[in-house]
Design brief:
Length: about 170
Amino acid sequence: MKARGQVFSTDFIVGMLVFLFILSLSVIVSRQAFLQADSFEQYSELRDAASAAASALVVSSGQPSNWEKLPSINDINSVGLAEERNVLSSEKLQRFSDLNSSNYSDLKQLLGLGKFDFFFSVELLQSSQQLYSAGMLPDSNATVVSASRLALLGSDEILVKLEVFD
């Protein structure tokens, strides 16, 4: 008697099912890892942009240093709110808030935020009373990174908050 091989034996089918299960599982796991890495990269980019912009606002007077007196935003190279390091100018804060209503996208560029949106606020440290604000509030499903800095405005201690989001 001659023995003939079977093409689809039970062992072959079980082996193929195990192989397909492992292959599917590895595709799902690698996709999840890719999504997490992409999310972390986006968060890092937001964090770096928020930190750099908040520091520049509190430490720098801007370029030119009298930018708040210029009639056109096109003459401003960078925005800074400081009279001196960590001491803010109320005139610069007011001009910054005023520019927000008509030149929001230009203001984003001057802050170095590019594709990100922002909300900026200044509040008294003791009472949390908001003195100035600019930008737009993030919606509930946006990824938001907040950078806060302490400073002085006249003799008042203030908290400068910059929220950057996508």
